[in-house]
Specification:
This is Carbon-monoxide dehydrogenase small subunit. This protein is α+β, with helices and mostly antiparallel strands. It is about 35% helix and about 25% strand.
Length: about 425
């Protein structure tokens, strides 16, 4: 046991604790400040982030004894801080929290971003937030809240916040808010470096902003491209991946001619409809309903094809007007002739969701749901090839029953559980 004394939110807290007690446990159990949340307890999720001498640290992997004599600020101690006042208002205005579990740590990191990166854009904010995980929001509201605070400070500087920024750079701070200024030794560190950014740079490729990805996809939809095999391939979408396949009892050439006919393909995709069609480009809507999730994505897409290998990529991006969620993705399908009258179609879906619906994107049920949609799409393709539409007549729209599909997915899961237990 060791006697540990900390200055927590301006109050001295002393207690005899085990030498290896972490700061997060000390704050919750000894100081009775339960606003500091413990998540992964491995320093990964960022929920436990607090300020030590004005700098964000992970309280779940910091020993309390190593913090003795330091100034610790938790979510309960921000009331006098000018940055946090603005951030709290912005988080509310931009719906930047849902369950709230990550919010104490997210606010601590957001405060650091506002002070250290006054000119940060969306991409920079996302890099800085890389050490704070949120399972609910999709980060769009969080990024928008931080960006709005930065924009307001550029338009109308705040002397209290300017003083905190000067103190962070080791300059005379003047009048500062109640939070202690960072230790002067930290001023020698590069201003643009966070404790996690160096780690990220070592173990990952450069971070690509997902909002920029959606914007790039939308821009690409309106750019001029060629559908020939020599066209340079566009970059792959970053996000979740789902694969599936189906067989069609027709020759590969016949199936290929059908699969590059965009109105015909759309008529086989449950919930899809085309409003505009120009060559290999379309605009339209995809309606989805699955349990509590309901959305109608309006957007644009284009088809890139390779007639030699019978491979095509359908690239698109869209937005749901109700939730303001955005989606972009690539659907790649490849045809393989099994024999003279049978063709296998392999489908790979790469997609990313941003906004409130992002919380559903990695759900196991959603993945099963999409695989069922691929299977239904294959059955619709076969039906259309068996009964071609009359020449000149608009193609029929594939019937879609969300209830039937929902219970079909659940039944498949139930059967899978029983098959594994017997």
């Amino acid at each position: 046991m060791a006697l540990v004394t900390l200055d927590v939110n301006g109050r001295k807290v002393s207690s005899d604790v085990p030498a290896r007690m972490h700061l997060g446990d000390f704050l919750r159990e000894e100081a009775r400040l339960t606003g500091t949340h413990l998540g992964c307890e491995h320093g990964v999720c960022g929920a436990c982030t607090v300020l030590m001498d004005g700098q964000p640290i992970r309280s779940c992997i910091s020993f309390a004894s190593a913090c003795a004599g330091k100034h610790i600020t938790t979510i309960e101690g921000y009331d006098a801080d000018p940055v946090m006042r603005r951030l709290r208002e912005a988080f509310t205005a931009h719906h930047a929290l849902q369950c709230g579990y990550c919010t104490p740590g997210m606010l601590a990191t957001a405060r650091d971003i506002v002070l250290r990166c006054p000119d940060a854009d969306d991409a920079r904010i996302r890099v800085e937030l890389a050490g704070n995980l949120c399972r609910c929001t999709g980060y769009m509201g969080i990024v928008a809240a931080i960006r709005s605070v930065l924009a307001d400070l550029i338009a109308t500087p705040d002397e209290e916040i300017s003083a905190l920024r000067r103190a962070l750079r080791g300059e005379p701070a003047g009048a500062v808010a109640a939070l202690p200024a960072p230790a002067s030794s930290s001023a020698a560190a590069p201003a643009a470096q966070t404790p996690f950014e160096g780690f990220i740079a070592k173990v990952t490729t450069p971070v690509k902003d997902t909002a920029a990805s959606a914007s790039s996809a939308s821009t690409a939809s309106s750019a001029s491209t060629s559908s020939s095999a020599s066209t340079a391939p566009a970059s792959r979408t970053k996000g979740s991946e789902i694969t599936g396949q189906f067989e069609v009892p027709f020759p590969a050439d016949q199936v290929w001619d059908f699969m590059v006919d965009l109105p015909a393909v759309a008529s086989c995709l449950p919930g899809a409809s085309i409003t505009e069609h120009d060559g290999d480009r379309v605009k339209g809507k995809v309606a989805i309903k699955f349990g509590p999730m309901s959305a109608a994505f309006n957007g644009a897409a284009r088809l890139e094809r390779d007639d030699t290998t019978k491979t095509a990529v359908f690239r698109g991006a869209g937005q749901d007007t109700l939730s303001q969620s955005r989606a972009n993705g690539d659907i790649t399908y490849r045809l393989t002739a099994l024999d003279s009258s049978r063709t296998r179609v392999d489908v790979e879906l790469l997609y990313s969701l941003q906004g409130p619906l992002a919380q559903f994107s990695r759900s196991g049920l959603v993945r099963d749901f999409v695989r069922r949609m691929i299977a239904d799409f294959g059955r619709n393709v076969t039906a259309r090839l068996q009964r071609p539409a009359d020449a000149g007549a608009p193609p029929p729209v594939a019937a879609f029953s969300p209830t039937r599909m929902f219970f079909g997915v659940l039944w498949d899961r139930i059967k899978g559980i029983f098959s594994r237990t017997h």
